[in-house]
Structures are given as C-alpha cells and as structure tokens.
Amino acid sequence: MTVSKQKINAVAKKCHEANKAYCESIGDDSQPSWKDAPDWQKESAKAGVQFHIDNPNADDSASHDSWLAQKKADGWVYGETKDEDAKTHPCIVPFEELPEEQQFKDALFIETFRAAFGEPKPETDTKPVPKPEPKPKAKAEPTRVYNCKVFKKNPDGSFASMTVRSDAIPEGFYADPEQCD
C-alpha cells in the first residue's frame, strides 16, 4: 500500500498522542505533545507507522522488535532511565521482559494505527495483555480497598477503561498500582 507522507505524519501524530494520554493515565507525565516532541521522537512514531503499513498483521511483540531495532541502530542502549543525551532507555529489552504497562503501549500503537486506517483486526492478533498476578506482601496487613483506573483491550481491538474498587477488578482488565488511590 502506498501512503503519502502527510498521512503517515497524521497517523504518527495520533499514535503519539494516544501514547501520551495512556502514559499520563499511569502517572507518567514525561511525554511531550506532538508539537513539542523532539524530531527523533516524531521520526520514531513515523517509522512505527511505516512498519505497520509494510507489516499489517504484525503483533505487539513485532512492533516492539521493530522499535527496538531502530533504537539500537540509532545508538540507544538500555538504561534505567530514559535520557535523550545519553541515548539510554529502560525499554531497550526484549518484549517479553517489558513490564505489562509498557507492553500495552505496543498494543495501543497498533490499535490506533488500525483505527486511523479503518483496518479490521486480523485473525492472527495476540491475546490481550493479562492482568498481573498480585505480589505477595512481606507481612500481614489489613486489606485496604482503593479506587483504581483499569484498562482492557476489547476483542474488537478497541480499548476500555473505567474506575473500580481494587477488590472488584473485572477479569481481563489491567490495573496499574500507581493509578489506585
């Protein structure tokens, strides 16, 4: 499929802004708006769009692998914090080693891309990111109930979010502990 540079830029902007909104929902306010994003970040989003134009059935892992290969080619390496000047990034790891909230960003990119092009979800898609297992507590404490923002990738490829009590998170939803108060 041949796509104009203007369309690639417009879709890359949508994907970037969706990622920015998701990051904010999990407490990460570090993502600039598209108009304020550095050129390398815009080029990365455009490369992601081109990858999915060329590979319409690529799954979340393949999307991350493409991003990872581009980052490494540009000289980026793993680092505990993202640093533009040092070219370090905590997501310079295989997809399977990413925290689930980072894996979700790859799914979000794909679904935003598909929505922008009006493409249906292929039959070969992977299952939604599972809800993480609760971590064992070091010592017994009274159970506290929080309000949590939860996310889910629907079978049709769209995303749902809602706020629920931490003791009543529906099956298939992902709750980020930082989004519980």
Tell me, what's the shape?
Answer: globular
Largest sheet: 3 strands, antiparallel
Q: What structural category do the secondary elements indicate?
A: alpha+beta
For the CA atoms, what is the radius of gyration? Answer: 17 Å
Number of domains: 1
Oligomeric description of these chains: single chain
Q: Which blocks of ≥5 consecutive residues have pLDDT under 50?
A: none
Let me know the number of strands.
Answer: 5
DSSP helical segment count: 4
Strand content: 5-15%
Order of helices and strands: HHHEEHEEE
What percent of the residues sit in helical stretches (DSSP H or I)? 25-40%
The chain-level mean pLDDT equals: 82
The strand line-up of the biggest sheet is 4-3-5
**Head-to-tail CA distance between termini:** 46 Å
Describe the protein's architecture and organization:
There is one protein chain. With 181 residues, the chain is of the alpha+beta class. The chain has one domain (5-180). Helices cover 38% and strands 14% of the residues. It contains 4 helices and 5 strands, in the order H-H-H-E-E-H-E-E-E. The protein has helices spanning 5-25, 39-54, 60-73, 100-117, and strands at residues 77-78, 88-89, 147-153, 159-165, 174-180. The strands form 2 sheets. The chain has a 3-stranded antiparallel sheet with strand order 4-3-5, with helices on one face. It has a two-stranded parallel ribbon with strand order 1-2. Helix 1 packs across helix 2, helix 1 runs antiparallel to helix 4 and helix 3 packs across helix 4. The radius of gyration is 17 Å and the shape is globular. It starts with a helix and ends with a strand.
